[in-house]
Specification:
The structure holds 2 protein chains of 2 kinds. Chain A folds into 2 domains: 30 residues; 149 residues, Glutaredoxin (3-Layer(aba) Sandwich), CATH 3.40.30. Helix content of chain A is 38%, strand content 17%. Chain A is built from 5 helices and 7 strands, in the order αβββαβαβαββα. In chain A, the strands form 2 sheets. Chain A has a 5-stranded mixed beta sheet, with helices on one face. A two-stranded antiparallel ribbon of chain A has the order 1-2. By secondary structure, chain B is mainly α. Among the domains of chain B are: 66 residues, Helicase, Ruva Protein, domain 3 (Orthogonal Bundle); 32 residues. In chain B, a hairpin with a 4-residue loop joins strand 1 and strand 2. Chain B is elongated. The chains are: A alpha/beta, B mainly alpha.
């Protein structure tokens, strides 16, 4: 192989490697039922200066609700999530908010006044905040809101790519919690 | 005495001229100045091109920060803190983002090198094919043919 061909080969390989790295770093995870839930230490939105993670609630069922303050369906579903959390926390359920694609001031206002039109009370379930889009990629999200039920061992038990309401929660989430305790 | 007055007046005039420059070192920024340099991360477009709800909230945050008297750079830093580095329309100069600067620069350098080599080759070829260079002499048959062809014309 001549020097010119070698240089051309190296150049082509370098461009392909660069493209491959770029695609791999932008790649989205594909979650399936039974997969371990993507988890990492995140700042607590509702408790400044503290951090938390999904694994903090190991041994309980965790309904991870990904939301953003600019998302209207997130506002609509949050009172139902708050009610569900209050009603079933003694049964080993935690609703865990995961704020993404947002800024802190708007997110804090959201948890204080989640749905002003419906005069909804402030959200009391714990809240984590992820800067930017990193957690959406980890969960393979396509938008907000999305909901993930995590079993007591940390596996994904249910994926809802969209908003939930009381009817959905009682029909699909409650049987899993009650049937597996 | 008169000279001292002149110096004093000059100093005052110079101070007055310099004052706006020093006060204007960090001019107050505006939404339009910033929104074409940052992204609406969810929409994947520059902020000034997006009307999405998330973009409106981002604009509102920028307006709040401007009202607080933050400089352009401080506002960009806060946007990165809130939305991550993806909010910047211009990639940073470190990590993988550095490739966004290096690849085009490398491409331009390679193109310049290729052009320089090509020009050098063309010039060398031009010199090689020019008049005065040794060319194979005409054979006797070719010379006769040229003569007969020229004889057809009344030159």
């Amino acid at each position: 192989m001549g020097a010119r061909a070698a240089v051309a080969t190296v150049a082509v390989l370098a461009v392909l490697a660069l493209l491959g790295y770029g695609l791999a770093s932008k790649g989205e995870a594909k979650l399936a039922l039974g997969d371990p839930v993507p988890d990492r230490e995140l700042p607590r939105l509702d408790d400044e200066g503290k951090t938390g993670r999904i694994a903090d609630y190991r041994g309980k069922w965790v309904l991870v609700n990904a939301w953003a303050s600019w998302c209207d369906p997130c506002r609509e579903e949050s009172p139902d999530l708050e009610r569900f959390h209050r009603r079933h926390r003694d049964e080993g359920l935690v609703v865990l908010g995961l704020n993404i694609q947002d800024n802190t001031a708007d997110a804090l206002e959201f948890i204080q006044k989640p749905n002003p039109d419906a005069d909804a009370p402030p959200l009391t379930y714990p809240q984590l905040r992820s800067v930017g889009d990193e957690r959406s990629r980890a969960f393979g999200m396509t938008g907000v809101p999305e909901n993930f039920l995590v079993d007591p061992e940390g596996g994904i038990a249910l994926i809802r790519r969209g908003p939930v309401d009381t009817a959905y929660l009682e029909r699909f989430v409650l049987p899993l919690i009650r049937g597996n305790q | 005495m008169r000279r001292a007055k002149m110096i004093l007046v000059s100093v005052v005039v110079l101070a007055l001229l310099a004052a706006p420059v020093s006060f204007g070192a960090e001019p107050r920024t505006s939404l339009t100045d910033i929104e074409d340099e940052v992204m609406c991360p969810i929409c994947g477009t520059a902020l000034n091109l997006s009307q999405a709800p998330q973009a409106e909230r981002e604009r509102e945050l920028i307006r709040r920060l401007i009202a607080e008297g933050r400089t352009k750079q401080e506002i960009k830093d806060e946007l990165v803190r809130q939305y991550g580095s993806e909010v910047l329309a211009v990639p940073s100069g470190s990590g993988f983002d550095l490739a966004a600067w290096l690849v085009p620069a490398g491409g331009v350098a390679l193109a310049a090198l290729a052009l320089a080599l090509a020009v050098r080759r063309w010039r060398a070829r031009g010199r090689g094919g020019g008049p005065g260079e040794a060319e194979p002499p005409l054979t006797e048959a070719d010379a006769k043919r040229v003569d007969s062809d020229l004889a057809r014309y009344d030159l």
